[in-house]
Amino acid sequence: MAIKERMPAPGEPGQLVEMSWDPITRIIGNLGIYTKIDFANRKVVECHSTSSLFRGYSVFMKGKDPRDAGFITSRICGICGDNHTTCSVYAQNMAYGIKTPPLAEWIVNLGEAAEYMFDHTIFQDNMVFVDFCEAMVKDTNPGLLKRARTTEAPGAAVHGYRTIAEIMEAFNPFEGEVYKEALKVSRVTREMFCLMEGRHVHPSTVYPGGVGTMPQPSLFTDYLSRLIGIVDFIKKAVAMNDDVFDFFYEALPGYEEVGRRRIMLGCWGAFQNPDVVDYRYETMNRWGKAMYVTPGIVVDGKLLTTDLVDINLGIRILLGSSFYDDWVNEKPFVTHDPLGNPVDMRHPWNQTTLPAPQKRDFDGNYSWVMSPRWLDPASGQHLALDTGGGPFARLYVTALANLVDTPYVKATGSSVRISLPKGDRLPETTLEWRIPRWSNALERNRARVYFVAYAAAMAVHFVEQAMDRMRGGDTKVFEDFDVPDEAIGVGFHEAVRGVLSHHMVIQKGKIANYHPYPPTPWNGSPRDSFGTPGPYEDAVQDMPIFEENGPDDFKGVDIMRAVRSFDPCLPCGVHMYLGKGRKLEKLHSPMFGAAHG
């Protein structure tokens, strides 16, 4: 719920009002955003991001059979569990010395493409766009809605809605045409996923060494027929999103500052190239660059690296404002990587999780999320990278790297061109995502719908490659292996909402250390030991407020747009903290939907 506490002498010019949203709704419920707002100057002056639940997967993974890692870690998340399974399998393949059969790689790629299409669609259309729909805008910015009713939609010929307001109405929850159609698309894309990985969201057919999915012509034609059935929806979605977001820029000058932060993006790559990948650490730079989503780090619009070895070695886990004790005096698990490079004590391979429960204190420790950072060797700075919600970083890095070149997706150095096949009603269409000027809420959201198109286009390519291999008589999908007594492994992948890495150490045939780092610790981290705020905090702090409501009926829609643009996803749990002696006033219910009329 949203809560308010007026500080002394309310109503004075520039007087700060504390407001918090805990839990943030429409996501897994243990993210809290605590702010101080200057209503006189329409500005957020302070923001803290909190997570109120400790789960401890890194603790109870110790001593387990390494082969169970994928099945256990998929339960980290009830939304993108398959991404964890896939990443764990990548790490295990490295530790066991496996080169997966090519057809198995195509099958996993097809499953992950379906997952991106499913998750991004349901989040964008059924959760994010509630903040941009007619019912919400009517409550928060009635003047903007009035203008939207008379503003022609440039993409009307594609999506069929004459004005911007008509698009907004189509996203009204439970009633709007697009809102309901997106739910149908989510069902179809889950079916596509299950064809390849067996079960959603915890795969039953993805293992180290390959897959248990039986390759047959009907497997791929069933997938493809479903894909062709939704490509027109994807084309329309891109046009609708472009129309709405461009309208916000035009109608609300300065809206580019909502959720804006310095461009500091991380992408760990996705979709392995079976012709190149062998999962050896020594060749990781080569096969990383061959991924169909390029890994890399971008700072201030410049691509710093696409080398997964550099990315791996630069990861640092800082504690700062989190509820943990330090482990730097413990004995390291890994002193050097397989190439002989030294491994830092704050690297996930060497991390020991030492929980230290305590009272939340915004001047001290206030979150169960640690603070992952990337140490830039050139500047010596620990960078608070964000994922841009996943798609923004993926498209940005892939565009700059200019390495992806397939018949359906091509990077150009400044953009990504995406070609979608003919659907039931719309012709073959080429879309182009261009690197924008800002890293902000609107561009993170815009990138999401473009990446749905990216995943769909790559899925066509993956189907063609899989069918060609099967027609050639190569139906092998699994490689036998043995678990070594001593080994290390790392998997790099893109969870739906961004960077995902699994770091594993095997000793005496069992897991000695295991640390998964999904995107939310990167995006939702608290202030680190250098005082640097995490990306949620950074994006909200100092941003302007455009909502027309005052403190008494404030919805915080601009703040919610900024936070939700990162596609926040924290482990299940709901928590509210009421500080001693504070008087809190309920502002509104978190539910916004069927009763909005």
TrEMBL record:
Residues engaged in binding Mg(2+) = H575
Q: Which residues bind Fe cation?
A: C80, C572
UniProt entry keywords in alphabetical sequence: Iron, Magnesium, Metal-binding, Nickel, Oxidoreductase
Q: What class of enzyme is it?
A: oxidoreductase
Q: Which cofactor does it need?
A: Fe cation; Ni(2+)
Q: Which Gene3D superfamilies match?
A: Cytochrome-c3 Hydrogenase, chain B (1.10.645.10)
Task: Report what the protein is called.
Answer: Hydrogenase large subunit
Q: Which organism is it from?
A: Actinomadura viridis
